[in-house]
Amino acid sequence: ISLDLDDQNLNALAEEIVKRSDDKTRVWSSEEEEKVGCLDFSRVQLRRIFSRGSLEQGGRFYGGFWQSIPERHRPHIRIDGKNTVEIDFSTMSLRIICAQEGIEVPFDRDLYDIGLKGWIGKDDPRRKPIKTYINAILNDETGNYSLPKDKLDILGISHQELHQRVLENHKPISHLFSSGIGLHTQFIDS
C-alpha cells in the first residue's frame, strides 16, 4: 500500500496531517484518527477492535496509515501499484438499523439532517457534531452522552433540543437510541 504523490504534494500532505492533529475545533470521527499526528508509512498492519467482551460488537479495522489520509489525497492511494476507490456509505449505522426494522430510506436522504434552519446538506458545518452525537447515543446504553459545549455552540441549540430533534426525526427507530445497538451495526459494517 503506497501513495502516488510527488515530493511537493507528499510534504503538503504531511503538513496537513500535523496541522489537523493540532486543530482543537475539529470533530474527530474516531479516537484513533485523533491520535495520528504524523504520516507513518510503517503502519500497514490492521487490527480489529471489538467492544464489551463480544466478538459481535464493534469489529472495525484500525491502524493503517491510509485511514488517516485526508479525503482529497485518498485518490492517490495505491495497492500493488493499482488505483483504489473509496466508497462512502453515508449514515451507515442509521441505514442498517432502518433496514433491520424494515424501514425504507431514500438513498439521497441525509439522516443527519434534523431540521435545523438553513441546513445546506453534507457541507453544513453542523453535520459533523450531529453525526458524532447520533453515533454516540446509538452506542450509549446509559443515555448520559452529551456533546461538549463548544460543539453545541456550533449547532446553536441546547442539548435537550438536539436530543428531541434526533428522536423526532428518527421516530420509527427512536426506541433504539441509548440501547447500544450502534456497536452491533459496526459489526455488520465491518
Helix content: 25-40%
Structural class: alpha+beta
- Rg is 18 Å
Mean pLDDT: 90
In whole angstroms, how far apart are the ends? Answer: 20 Å
- Unreliable residue runs: 26-34
Number of strands: 5
Global outline = globular
* Beta content: 5-15%
Q: Largest sheet at a glance?
A: 3 strands, antiparallel
Order of helices and strands, N to C?
A: EHHEEEEHHHHH
| Strand adjacency order, main sheet | 1-4-5
Number of H/I helices: 7
Structure description:
It is built from 7 helices and 5 strands, in the order βααββββααααα. The strands form 2 sheets. The chain has a 3-stranded antiparallel sheet with strand order 1-4-5, with no helix packed on it. It has a two-stranded antiparallel sheet with strand order 2-3. The longest helix has 16 residues, at 7-22. The chain has helices at 7-22, 31-35, 92-100, 127-139, 149-155, 159-169, 181-189; strands spanning 2-3, 47-51, 54-62, 77-79, 82-83. With 190 residues, the protein is of the alpha+beta class. 37% of the residues lie in helices and 11% in strands.
